[in-house]
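Format notes (please read before filing issues)

Several people have asked whether sequences and structure tokens are stored in separate files. They are not. Every record keeps both together, in the order shown below: the sequence lines, then the token lines. Line labels are part of the format and must not be stripped during preprocessing.
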Amino acid sequence: MSALSLRRWGHAFAFVSLSSLSLYLYWRHAFSLGRTQFHSGWVLLAAVVFLAAYNLRKKFPFIPLGSSSAWLQVHLNIGWLTFILFAIHLEFRVPTGALEAVLAALYLAVAISGVLGLFFSRIFPRRLSQRGQSAVSQDGKDRRRHGEEILFERTPVYHRQLRERAEALVLESAKMSASLTIADFYRDRLHRFFARPRSFVMHIVGSGRPLHLLMAEFAVIRRYLSDADRAILDKLEQAVRAKDALDYSYALQSVLRTWLFVHVPMTYGLLVFAVFHGVLVHAFAGGSR
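Then the structure lines:
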């Protein structure tokens, strides 16, 4: 068994042990008629504070507080454990009251966004690498770069270059041939395609249906063209495939870059509401719990 597998089994064992201990302590206090909400609330708040601290740890990598990978693994384990702590804090019931409902909704939003972020960060880079990507170089030629990321910040530049190349091909076809088939096809079908990123959701779910439908239209038009126009259409098809690959990269990289802008602010919002909730609970309880 490799060292990586041993670490994963160790983390899994730690998670199961902590979860079992939390449930045991809950049932022990429940059967002894003890109130578990105060204690579980503080433990849950401490866990959320620790999870939020991971974002601060990433901002100061030079501080010797352990490796980022170790922090990430502990972050994941504590994150999964909060599901158990959250259920214990609610005493396995549906929350009542406006503040409890808001807190529960915030926690679920943070937790779900975290789970989705874990999925995205594990799956999307692999998908980008497996597919390979097509970028546009400065001289306007395709450049296959298997496993190499297209620079996200330069995506608008790549889009513009592909659009300009497609328009140049259409103009070339109109000049050298009396047929306007390619020009009409570009106007009716491809102009909007090259105008901006397309098929965002379909790329996220990994569906190639939009491109397949477009390629089917290319196959139909090719039957009615001369040899010279077919050569231009082939180049236009290459530009379409490059644009689709660029849209694919844009969609996946957009999700990878933006999910944290949802997850992190909601985490801080959860902390604020949790502290406010704790102050109210202790105030109404007279601070005697």
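For reference, the curators noted about this record: The chain has nine helices and two strands. The two ends are 48 Å apart (CA to CA).
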